[in-house]
Structure prediction request, 612 residues.
Amino acid sequence: MKPNVKPQGEIRQSQLVTTFGPGSMVDLPDHSVLIAGLDAWTAGGEPISEPRLSRKLAAVVGVPSVDLRTPPPADDDPTAPPRGIVAFQFPEWFIVQGAEPQEEGKFRTRLLVHRKSLTKRKYIDRDQKKRSVVPVRFVRACRAGHIADIDWYAFVHNGPSDCAKQVRQLFIDERGTSGDLTEVWIRCECGKAERSMAQAAVLANHALGSCDGARPWLGAFTKETCGEPSRLLIRSASNAYFPQLMSVISLPDRDQAIKQTVDRIWNYLEVVEEIGQLRYERKKAVVREALDGFSDEEVLAEIQSRKLGAAKTEKSVKVAELETLVSAKDEIGEDRPDGVFYARNLPRKVWDQPWMAPIERVVLVHRLREVVAQVGFTRFESAAPDTEGELDIGVKRAALAREVSWLPAFENKGEGIFLQFNRESIKTWLGRKSVSDRATELGLGFEAWRKEHAGANRQAPNLAYLMMHSFSHLLLTAVALRCGYPASSIRERIYAFPEIGYGVLLYTGTSDAEGTLGGLVQLGRQIHEVVKSALDLGILCSNDPVCAQHDPPNPHERRFLHGAACHGCLLISETSCEQQNDFLDRSLVVQTVQNLGAELFSEILANEGSPA
Prediction:
């Protein structure tokens, strides 16, 4: 592999975290390159402070601590020290442009040559003519992220051959006009061997051999033991690179706030042993005023932890966020948003309508800061965070560096709307037989998916999560039609914890220093109208009755993780969805033409007219 190629091209900093990070393949105007690992980057850009995310990522990669930094920015100053990102030339096999004369009239054929056969990126043919080349679009890889060039001589001869030592010419033939793999053939000059690329696509054929653990983005001598079968990979295919990301919303440190509050009134609380004593102490004005906004359970946990000298177990990403969102204070007219997180309850009288019965609280998040970091990547199959926002430590991810001391990250500033669901409404809904019957059908679909994805670690979310996820997609579509932001720029976070609460956060953000313009918060003041529109959208899909009657475990449709969901109703941009458009069923939200009776918002739309 040719090292230290510095192509003249530019990529946005956020793309180096989400799309074109270490190990990804990038087509630039004059090159096809593999982005190098973090060891080959110049030191990262600006540091990003987010201790909660840093601690969790350090545990994932198995190091004591890890810094978060933006990718290094480009520098046009010729006198400044070199900054930027190194890329390696990849693949190293090329197709010579122009059909070979001896084959014209039969099918299109071109030479397949190695980088060592080129002179200043040109191929000099037998007539001494310089001919341009383009990178071959086929490489081999495995699910662990390893990648390498195909051994073309071994592939076309179905094993070792003297043609490799004799450096006989190879040809790539296009025996048709569709570009289908069955029409693409590799042929050797010896005339004794040719093979269709369609055979390379069949994993059972083992046409590409076993993976040798190559990690070329980390440089030379970085192979590791693998042994998985090599798979055919198209360089520009969507399954060539799945960055494994983890994101958190920056929150005021609630635990620290409780600690400081208990410190101030410890002389009142040191005698407290159980919740009844705490409630008695809270009747005192000083204690009541100090503990305003903190629940009895939170305060008692801090008291007991202090007495036992025990360190608290760190909460999961979403648990900490949910606790902060549900503890937001009521909106007061003279309040001015400040800090990186500022949220206020919208008074119930503003949005109270019959169809909002399952909703307990509406929180307008005037300011929020989201930090997104990349910890690794996979190929062929994605490995997203679980429903609690945590990364699975057991996932085999490809490393971003030989030795990880920092990880690339970026931050967005924005706003959002949070809807908290009533826990009793959810509990009552889950207890209905029609709901449990639908849960069984959806569970059969997930089991069918598991059979086709042997070894996958993915777990099915609870039914409340699935319902709120479907509601979130309907709401996001309705919000995008009104707020002025495109749907692809609005993202979701689903909170489904039976012991703590349930909720949906829709938010948007930008890397601009000033954040967003307030469109979501302003729309939040008419949230009852938006929810009504969202529920109306879910009742009838343009693909009904086919969509509503979809059977999740149906082996012919192969949409095992969907109930009543399709591109006509629930599927949205995958950048907005935290589950890659899986685990969706609008029949859990509203009544569809299938009339299963499993909807949460039951009999509401039938009795209420549209809002003015």
